[in-house]
Recover the amino acids of this structure.
């Protein structure tokens, strides 16, 4: 028995073959997810807050920002 | 994988038709669910990942090419969603199969250690290792699901085996 065979045997014992279950009806969950309002991520909120704070402290950056937009 | 649906359904899906999307969902849900359970070996997590994957598919519908296989595209999406799930999920021991409860205690302990070592693999190696070493899926099919070349799958399997051996040895299981 090679090393690979032994490893496969270990994995076969740890993860025995199981009968795969039938899929439940998840369509209502998909529809609920599609219609749920999209929340902005904390990263987006943080980024906007950082830009606003930076512009309040150094208004001159507004021209720089506008130039790059 | 189910047969490819009518091209008109695919075209309408790409345009955002919800009825066409439901028809595709009904046709592919079973295949996508079973694929996800095989990757995650956790039915409850597979349900969440499936919902997330179909949500991602609908949001990305404009990028879907109706002349390509919907089934293969969906498998790629759900495989990525499963990988994201593994990244976020806390490391824990999955439930023991019922038939193992009657196995000798030493074997049960060893199997639990092997599963722990497996779960410690980086998600992208864990997915490839699950499909290749546990589920015995052909490399070409894994490559298609991950949207990577077959050579990349081979390399990831090699790295997964090396990492697994190292971790098993660290946990006191010497299989050679």
């Amino acid at each position: 028995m090679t090393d690979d065979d032994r490893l496969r045997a270990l994995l076969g014992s740890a993860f025995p073959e199981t009968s795969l279950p039938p899929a439940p009806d998840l369509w209502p969950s998909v529809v609920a997810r599609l219609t749920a309002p999209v929340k902005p991520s904390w990263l987006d909120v943080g980024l906007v807050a950082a830009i606003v704070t930076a512009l309040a402290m150094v208004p001159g950056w507004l021209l720089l920002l506008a130039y790059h937009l | 994988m189910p047969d490819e649906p009518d091209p008109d359904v695919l075209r309408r899906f790409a345009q955002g038709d919800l009825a066409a999307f439901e028809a595709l969902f009904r046709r592919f849900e079973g295949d996508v669910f079973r694929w996800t359970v095989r990757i995650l070996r956790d039915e409850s997590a597979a349900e969440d990942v499936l919902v997330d994957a179909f949500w991602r598919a609908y949001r990305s519908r404009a990028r879907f090419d109706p002349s390509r296989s919907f089934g293969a595209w969906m498998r790629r999406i759900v495989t990525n969603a499963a990988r994201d799930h593994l990244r976020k999920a806390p490391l824990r021991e999955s439930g023991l199969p019922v038939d193992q409860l009657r196995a000798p205690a030493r074997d049960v302990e060893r199997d639990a250690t092997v599963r722990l070592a497996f779960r410690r693999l980086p998600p992208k190696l864990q997915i490839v290792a699950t499909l290749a070493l546990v589920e015995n899926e052909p490399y070409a099919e894994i490559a298609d699901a991950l949207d990577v070349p077959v050579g990349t799958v081979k390399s990831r399997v090699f790295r997964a085996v090396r990492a697994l051996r190292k971790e098993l040895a660290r946990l006191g299981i010497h299989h050679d």
